[in-house]
Write a structure and sequence with these properties.
- The complex is a heterotrimer.
- By secondary structure, chain A is mostly beta strands.
- Helix content of chain A is 13%, strand content 37%.
- The relative contact order of chain A is 0.31.
- In chain B, helix 3 packs parallel to helix 4.
- Chain B has helices at 8-30, 42-45, 72-87, 106-116, 131-137, and strands spanning 35-36, 57-60, 92-95, 138-140, 146-148, 156-157, 169-176.
- In chain B, strand 1 (35-36), helix 2 and strand 2 form a beta-alpha-beta unit.
- Chain B starts with 7 loop residues before the first helix and ends in a 15-residue tail after the last strand.
- In chain B, the strands form three sheets. In chain B, strands 1-2-3 form a three-stranded parallel sheet, with no helix packed on it. Chain B has a two-stranded antiparallel sheet with strand order 4-5. A two-stranded antiparallel ribbon of chain B has the order 6-7.
- The radius of gyration of chain B is 18 Å and the shape is globular.
- By secondary structure, chain C is mainly β.
- Chain C has one domain (5-149).
- Chain C is built from one helix and ten strands.
- In chain C, the strands form four sheets. Chain C has a three-stranded antiparallel sheet with strand order 1-5-3, with no helix packed on it. Chain C has a three-stranded antiparallel sheet with strand order 6-7-10, with no helix packed on it. Chain C has a two-stranded antiparallel ribbon with strand order 2-4.
- In chain C, strand 8 (104-111) and strand 9 form a beta hairpin.
- Chain C is globular, with a radius of gyration of 16 Å.
- The relative contact order of chain C is 0.21.
- The chains are: A mainly beta, B alpha/beta, C mainly beta.
- Chains B and C meet through helix 3, helix 4, helix 5, strand 4 and strand 7 of B and strand 1, strand 2 and strand 5 of C.
């Protein structure tokens, strides 16, 4: 699960890389547009990625 | 204007004042968004570029980019990487000069600018742009501005003793992040 | 956890060349820390490696006018007491950008009470953020070794 500003990113914006199975690709740009997020007073994007240990 | 004085002594004596006036002017009127070029002379290096009681300037790190001279391009990167070994100790941000995104060596130059720790600027022929390459160097900030990703440290050659004609790769090393907590001081952290 | 070392490789010669590059060549790399090296052009990622290991190398071949950018990303490991396994994570910054590691402004990796690992990162631009995870690639038998990265 991945959140930005507390909102969960849509499933289709998170994929396992086809080039390397150990790489998780998080399309923050697409998610930002889809969730219609706003920068507010900050000039950075804060993302929280939650990983379940195997 | 300094060149119009006939007396060499007068010209020499006025250099520090002239340089200080330039510095103050760029700070006041351009928020230091100016590039100091043609300034690799001892008088300028040690007066404007060394003291740390002022914001760092953008200073040209080498000779110009020459789009029409094919042999100049690998050399340009090589020279900048090695000049940085010296200029890293001055209070400046090294500028490896402009380049063209549609060019035989466009990717070569682009990669070099990205690891240089300095500015990235292009001199494309109007209408001829490689957007894919530009996308590899930039991204949109959350506020919509297109920004570049400058590493924390100035990029410099890692193999200082390899000659240009020695058939070796040129390695330009840089770093991004907090300094390692180590007793070995590997490099200086540029603000 | 330290930052990311980046090397730009440039073939300034007149012929294709191949060279071996040890992990230790990457600026800022320290001992007692695992890294993965990722190449910008291909997106390929090495297995986790550390400086003290003899085979911590990458091979790079470039044609004339060839170039590549490789970044060495530090891994953070979390040992699961019950399962006796370690999960390793690395923040790869923005993928598809030549110095994508430099897009990361802040990075914090912690383990929650419920066992989940959280990577809290600030990036300065929008793009595709990459995360690398490895698990069970090593079992630690020495307790002192475990203390290094927990």
């Amino acid at each position: 699960m991945i959140t930005i500003q507390g909102k969960v990113l849509p499933v289709h914006t998170v994929n396992i890389s086809k080039v390397d199975e150990h790489v998780l690709e998080v399309d923050v740009e697409a998610a930002w547009k889809e969730l219609d997020l706003d920068a507010g007073w900050s000039n950075e994007v804060e993302a929280k990625i939650y990983i379940n240990p195997t | 204007m300094l060149d119009t004085f006939i007396s060499a002594e007068a010209r020499r004596d006025l250099i520090p004042a002239y340089l200080d006036a330039w510095n103050i002017s760029t700070l006041r009127h351009f928020s230091v968004k100016a590039i100091s070029c043609m300034s690799q002379t001892p008088q300028i290096l040690f007066h404007s570029q060394m003291p740390t009681n002022r914001p760092p300037l953008l200073v040209r790190n080498s000779d110009d980019f020459f789009p029409e001279i094919p042999t100049s391009h690998p050399w340009h990167i090589f020279v900048n990487a090695h000049n940085a070994l010296f200029t890293q100790h001055l209070n400046l941000i090294p500028d490896w000069d402009m380049f063209q995104t549609v060019h035989e060596y466009s990717g070569f130059h682009a990669a070099a600018r990205c690891v240089s720790g300095g500015p990235i600027y292009i001199t494309d022929v109007p209408g001829e742009h490689d957007l894919d390459l530009i996308n590899q160097m930039t991204g949109p900030s959350p506020r919509g501005k297109t920004i570049i990703f400058r590493p924390s440290v100035v990029g410099k050659s890692l193999d200082q003793y390899n000659g240009y004609d020695d058939d070796h790769f040129l390695l330009v090393g840089t770093y991004h992040g907090k300094l390692p907590v180590s007793p070995h001081e590997i490099f200086t952290y540029r603000v | 956890m330290t930052g990311t070392g980046i090397i730009g490789f440039f073939n300034v010669s007149q012929r294709p060349l191949t060279e071996l590059v040890p992990l230790s060549k990457f600026p800022g790399v320290v001992e007692a820390q695992y890294y993965v090296i990722r190449a910008h052009s291909s997106g390929l990622v090495t297995k986790p490696m550390q400086v003290v290991e003899a085979n911590s190398l990458v091979t790079i071949s470039l044609g004339v006018r060839g170039y590549e950018i490789m970044s060495a990303y530090p891994l953070r490991g979390f040992f699961d007491e019950k399962k006796k396994e370690t999960t390793w994570v690395a923040n790869l910054g923005l993928l598809g950008k030549m110095a994508g590691a430099a897009a990361v402004v802040a990075n914090q990796v912690t383990k929650l009470e419920n066992g989940k690992i959280v990577i809290d990162t600030n990036i300065k631009a929008l793009g595709v953020l990459g995360m690398s995870t490895f698990s069970r690639f090593l079992f630690c038998y020495h307790s002192s070794f475990e203390q290094v990265y927990i």
